[in-house]
From TrEMBL:
Transmembrane regions listed in the UniProt entry: 37-57, 69-88
GO cellular component: cytosol; protein-containing complex
Subcellular location: Cytoplasm
The entry's keywords: Cytoplasm, Membrane, Methyltransferase, S-adenosyl-L-methionine, Transferase, Transmembrane, Transmembrane helix
Molecular function GO labels: methyltransferase activity
Source organism (scientific name): Caloenas nicobarica (Nicobar pigeon)
PANTHER family: HEPATOCELLULAR CARCINOMA-ASSOCIATED ANTIGEN, PROTEIN N-LYSINE METHYLTRANSFERASE METTL21A
Family stated for the protein in its record: Belongs to the methyltransferase superfamily. METTL21 family.
Protein name per the record: Protein N-lysine methyltransferase METTL21A
Amino acid sequence: MALVPYEEGGGWGARQLHSPWATHRFASRTIRLRQDWRGLGVAAVVWDAAVVLCAYLEMGVVDLRDRSVIELGAGTGLLGIVATLLGARVTITDRAAALEFLESNVQANLPPELRPRAVVKELTWGKDLGNFPPGAFDFILGADIVYLEETFAELLQTLDYLCSEQTVILLSCRIRYERDHKFLKMLRGRFSVSEVHYDSSKDVHIYKAQRASRKDDF
């Protein structure tokens, strides 16, 4: 699941998290997502990292048309929905508890002709890998999935399994704590990693990772 910290307190950001709906506009469409902070917590609200990565994809730096994409820790489904609208064939994943909620957002925000291109599927990192073809994805996307240190090994195992030599990983996150730097160090131990975008207004970084032997750009 997309797990990120939350501090109690007021402010516009907190009110947005507790709102039952979040509305965004990408790929020339208005996307209206159901949120469920009380029921599903951090997995069921839209975080800045997802918004920033969606905006980055919309820039056209990455061509997603007819590419095979998998999203990890999808939460509300915003990122997977936008990737589908941009032409990708997307497998949108999260843990079992979030799937019904995730599926409802995906179905509500994709036109009927695109729904077959987006598949919602259960994935617990490090445990359900046999249900996915190894190395079959062109892109792996994740927004604010780097948070719980106890999941780092399973996340890296999952990335390693899903990657081929050609796969591009795009991870969008804030760097909040020392453990975040630790994850980046672990990631660099298996992949070639570079920062490709930084949104200073939201303090969100986007990192690209590929198998260390591959040094091509997009």
